[in-house]
Design a protein that fits this description.
This protein has 5 helices and 2 strands. By secondary structure, it is mostly helical. The protein folds into 2 domains: about 45 residues; about 70 residues, no CATH class. A hairpin with a 5-residue loop joins strand 1 and strand 2.
Length: about 120
């Protein structure tokens, strides 16, 4: 019975979390795609944008991304390349071109550099 209650509470928390996101989109008119993409990036931890935050001085801080989320991010990039009809190797070229736009912790960047070079 306790396990059932814990699962029910977890499902309720997940439901509230998603409903809050949709209510946010409904309240804030404008470009719905941009707002949905923003929420996705903040909720899906395989996006590097989830791991940066402004500190109290206005400086942007980045955290090291755990390895399993790095692997998920790499798989996401490879899947996106495949969906666009590109080869798996095109991800290395894409990363080389776009890595300067990403705010990555030194350890995270080193992991991606090792995987993609």
């Amino acid at each position: 019975m306790i396990l059932y209650d814990m699962i029910a509470i977890l499902l309720l928390i997940c439901l509230i979390w998603y409903v809050k996101g949709w209510l946010f989109l409904a309240r804030h008119k404008g470009n719905a795609f941009d707002r949905a993409w923003f929420l996705h990036q903040k909720r899906a931890w395989h996006h590097w944008q989830s791991w940066g935050y402004p500190d109290t001085n206005g400086n942007l801080r980045v955290l090291s991304i755990p390895k399993h989320y790095c692997k998920e991010m790499l798989a996401d990039w490879r899947g996106a390349a495949r969906a666009q009809g590109l080869s798996r190797d095109s991800v290395s070229e894409w990363y080389a071109t776009n890595q300067s736009k990403m705010l990555l912790h030194l350890y995270t960047k080193a992991w991606f550099d090792e995987q993609l070079t």
